[in-house]
Amino acid sequence: MSKIRVVHYINQFYAQIGGEEKADIKPELREGVVGPGTAFQAAFGDEAEIVATVICGDSYFSENTKVAQPEIIEMVKSCKPDLFIAGPAFNAGRYGLACATISNAVKEELGIPVLTGMYEENPGADMFKDKIYIVATKNSAAGMRDAVKKMAPLALKLAKGEAIGASAEEGYIPNGVRKNFFEKKRGSERAVEMLLAKLAGKPFVTEYPMPAFDRVAPNPAVKDLAHATVALVTSGGIVPKGNPDHIESSSASKYGEYSIEGVQELTSEGWETAHGGYDPVYANENPNRVLPVDVMRDLEKEGKIGKLYPYFYTTVGNGTAVKNAVGFASEFAQKLKKDQVDAVVLTST
Questions:
Q1: C-alpha dihedral, 232 to 237 to 240 to 246, nearest 10°
Q2: Cβ pair 187, 206 in contact under 8 A
Q3: C-alpha distances in angstroms, 28 versus 73, 338, 343?
Q4: What is the distance between the alpha carbons of residues 227 and 189, in angstroms, rounded to a whole number?
Q5: Distances from the Cα of 248 to the Cα of 22, 62, 255, 315, angstroms
Q6: Which of 49, 90, 143, 317 measures 20 to 30 Å from 35, CA to CA?
Q7: Beta strands, E only, the chain
């Protein structure tokens, strides 16, 4: 019996070409295994073989999807694969979107099974989980071994045309399709076990997770904007050119404080976005689209507001832990209060 032919898709980072400075590389096709493909090949054993690896920079794909997608499709097609795997992308936003987008395109245009993997909060997962199988991974590449352990068996089942079980059994992100399966223990017994584990402070997993939403009571309206000091805060990642504080493009562990004293508008020569979860082209072209310094200066000149606070605070919202975000805000909010700032305009992407 011949081996299952697999084509693997990865970005510039996992191909060990470089980081953000190489995110603009065009698609290329390499024979055999590259980077994380080694782990997949080991997991496949004698059942499957990665015959080729497609590599594409995250920025290039996101900024040139209409050109990159058909080019990659032709590369994949030329290898005559039985299966296409992308990633895993973990919580990298642009990479996740690229993996999901190209996987869905391969499925629709070439009609072969596809599989990718990423963190459940990756934007790619939210957009494509009902179209393709996406294995749920951990937040970062530290979870590579666990991701491959879950992805490889499911990939082989897809390639062989075997029946795919429920998401709880196979490890993929729920796609809205319900499948029945038998648990080894009855519901009442499982419920008691979960309760005892919870009371004992031991780990347990609910069978019906409920979303938890943070509730923040709005402050009273500012009564006199014409004499108010207004500050700008953004999770859109606007930073000085070169990102001097190295704020991460995803899962940020820090925020930046930058002066805009005397700055009438943000220019592409001096500012850019560090955000990895949306197409940066338009933000880099005109950073005011994310951090509206120009509009705030107009309001200041017109007397609609008293003055614009001379500093702004910025971080990246892409995959950033709620705990970190709360910590950032708690810290710089004290500075804003100390300087008697009356209002904050919070912008996102």
A1: 130
A2: no
A3: 12, 54, 49
A4: 64
A5: 16, 18, 9, 8
A6: 317
A7: 4-10, 28-31, 48-55, 83-86, 114-119, 133-137, 229-234, 238-240, 256-259, 271-273, 307-314, 343-347
Q: How far apart are the first and last CA of the chain?
A: 51
Q: For the chain, give every domain's residue range.
A: 4-170, 225-347
Q: What is the mean pLDDT of the chain?
A: 91
pLDDT band of 211, cuts 50, 70, 90: low
Token couple for 256: 């930046």
CB 14 within 8 A of CB 86: no
Per DSSP bridges, beta strands 256-259 and 48-55 are unpaired
Taking 90 as the threshold, does the pLDDT of residue 212 lie above it?
no
- Specify the amino acid at residue 8: H
Whether 117 and 133 have beta carbons less than 8 Å apart is answered as: no
Mean pLDDT of 287-313: 96
Per-residue pLDDT, 187? 86
Structure tokens at 4: 């299952």
Report pLDDT digits (tens) over 91-121.
Answer: 888 899 999 999 999 999 999 999 999 998 8
pLDDT in tens, 258-294: 999 999 999 999 999 999 888 899 999 999 999 999 9
Instruction: Give the fold, CATH level 3, of 4-170.
Output: Rossmann fold (3.40.50)
Q: What is the Cα–Cα distance from 320 to 338, expressed in whole angstroms?
A: 26
311 neighbors 293 (Cβ within 8 angstroms): no
